[in-house]
Amino acid sequence: MKFIIYGVRKDEEGYAQNWSKENNVSVKLVTDLLNKKTVKLAKGYDAIIAYQQLPYDKEIFTSMKEYGIKDLSIRNVGVDNIPTDVAKANGVRITNVPSYSPNAIAELAITGLMQLLRRTPEFNEKMAKGDLTWEPDIAHELHTMTVGVVGTGRIGRAGINIYRGFGAKVLGYDIFRNPDLDAQGIYVDSADELFAKSDIITLHAPATKENYHMINKDSIAKMKDGVYIINTARGDLVNSKDLLAGYKSGKVAGAVLDVYENEVGIFNNDFTGKQIPDPTLRELMAQRDILVTPHVAFYTRPAVRNMVDVALNSAKDMVEKGESQNEVKF
Ligand code: COI
């Protein structure tokens, strides 16, 4: 059995090499991303392992069919950049890593939130100028607040556990209710109800056609004054310009954004000494209480290790047994 793994970063190399030794499966590591040109490197391999945020070219799947490769194993969760109809039409099966580390994502969300609630960006700014005073603002305590969790899958649930550890009241909204959480009575009946009742709104839903820009000027108007908004899920959930307007008006007290709707081609690039080529992102980043990070919630040692190991295991299962618990059904 021979696999090829595309877009390998330095921090992933050791995990892939160890897996290859432990499983006695040859794994070719390449740094190129998978696209219509680089797919030719996969000729002769039994499965492709990939991760990228750029859209997967349709031609990848026609070439895979031509080379007799049936399996694409992605080492992340989201499949929103894969033309799944084309994959299916060319007999390509897809596996993902649905749960590499829900805590990695939930912890980053809460890290940003605590910075905002305890005003550390404000103190950093003031202290850099030599101003060591306390005022004008005064901090919040999370246990006095209500956190509205949109999306109660694995990541949302990891967040709920952490928020509860802080003593906060938690509300949930999801089109698919988790039976345990339902029995605890955390669900509200609509996103609007959650918006109206929450001091903090944290998004943990996949991007779909239905929830595109669910945070927009109308939904922000329904929220409490001084609301905090957290998005570590998908950029498309938030209308960034409306969020900025809400922040500038004072309606939104702050935001934590690890994702941005136009991040592809911008995040994970070094613009030192150059202008970031997106004015809205630049403006978001310039606001003291909008904390932007470049889609790094997943970027922890345990998560990256799981991404590599689970993706390789799934590819092996697909090739050997024709099935994997991580196969994405369309
Ligand atoms: C995903 O797993 O879909 C993510 O969003 C994380 C990715 C940047 C590796």
UniProtKB/TrEMBL annotation:
EC id:
1.1.1.28
Q: Which UniProt keywords apply?
A: NAD, Oxidoreductase
- CDD domains with a match to the protein in the record: LDH (cd12186)
Tell whether Lyase is among the UniProt keywords. no
Xref: InterPro entries: D-isomer_2_OHA_DH_cat_dom, D-isomer_DH_CS, D-isomer_DH_CS1, D-isomer_DH_NAD-bd, D-LDH-like, NAD(P)-bd_dom_sf
Gene Ontology molecular-function annotations: D-lactate dehydrogenase (NAD+) activity; NAD binding
Q: Where are the transmembrane segments?
A: none
**Pfam families to which the protein is assigned, alphabetical:** 2-Hacid_dh (PF00389), 2-Hacid_dh_C (PF02826)
**D-isomer specific 2-hydroxyacid dehydrogenase catalytic domain spans which residues?**
14-329
The D-isomer specific 2-hydroxyacid dehydrogenase NAD-binding domain is annotated at 112-297
Similarity annotation: Belongs to the D-isomer specific 2-hydroxyacid dehydrogenase family.
Protein name, per record: D-lactate dehydrogenase
